Amino acid sequence: MGDEDPGPKGHRERLRQRLLSGGADALLDYELLEYLLCLAIPRQDTKPLAKTLIARFGGLPAVLTAAPEALAQVKGVGETAVAAIKIAQASALHLLRARASEQPVLSGWQALLDYLHADMAHGPHERFRVLHLNARNMLICDDLMGEGSVDEAPVYVRKVIARAMELHSTSLILVHNHPSGDPQPSRADIEITRKLADAAKLLDITIHDHLVIGTSGHSSMRALGLI
After folding, report:
1. Which residue ranges does the chain devote to CATH 3.40.140.10?
2. Is residue 149 over pLDDT 80?
3. Is the CA virtual torsion 96, 101, 105, 108 positive or negative?
4. Alpha carbon 36 to chain centroid, angstroms
């Protein structure tokens, strides 16, 4: 008989060593989640639970962004496990937001897209947010302005413009997600974007873009010639 421990403790030790020596790419998605869960549920084999969560929600990013109440409905996921999953998500978002905020937004476009995709692509409901920029195109505020159903979030032109004036914003980037996964803008998306652009122009506020985020990627209304 060999000296290796075939039990959960030995398996976790091997995962830990792979993670520490090879980084995140050394582990598969279910192994990352498995190790995260084992820290919250130390006396349980968490591999089956990790695989169940990934199958249930459709992937590791969807697990991390799932609502706490949705996670808690899965058998074996208690409050401590939910908290572990949400702290992992929060840590990732803090890192990505910091990267997006440390340089002018327009010269760090990919960092912004990475942050927005991580935060919004897998959300079950549509959310509309406005990124407020100063004269140096630095992010001064990231405002959630509306949250709605699976296919609609309310957008109020007057509210968006009033907030921009309050913050002395010189330009804006509009963002919303499509829970369907398809980032192509709808007719309603295009219409509200043009209304906002017209209202902002009267106050010398520039709308740089309206980004639509989906699981399959994003679309830029500026790049599509819609602004």
Report:
1. 104-220
2. no
3. negative
4. 19
Is the separation of the CB atoms in 131 and 173 below 8 Å? yes
- Its sign, for the CA torsion 191, 194, 200, 205, is positive
What mean pLDDT is predicted for residues 78-101? 90
CATH code matching the domain that covers 104-220, chosen among 3.40.140.10, 1.10.10.10, 3.40.630.30, 3.40.50.1010: 3.40.140.10
* Helix, strand, coil percentages for the chain (3-state, nearest 5): 50, 15, 35
Instruction: For residue 56, give Cα distances in angstroms to 70, 119, 175, 178, 181.
Output: 10, 19, 28, 20, 17
Angle at 40 between CA 37 and CA 46, to 5 degrees: 35
Structure tokens at 36: 């995260």
Q: How deeply is 88 buried, as exposed, middle or buried, from its count of CB atoms within 10 A (0-12, 13-18, 19+)?
A: middle
Q: What is the pTM of this model?
A: 0.75
Phi then psi for 220, rounded to 5 degrees?
A: -115, 120
Do residues 161 and 203 touch, judged by C-beta distance below 8 A? yes
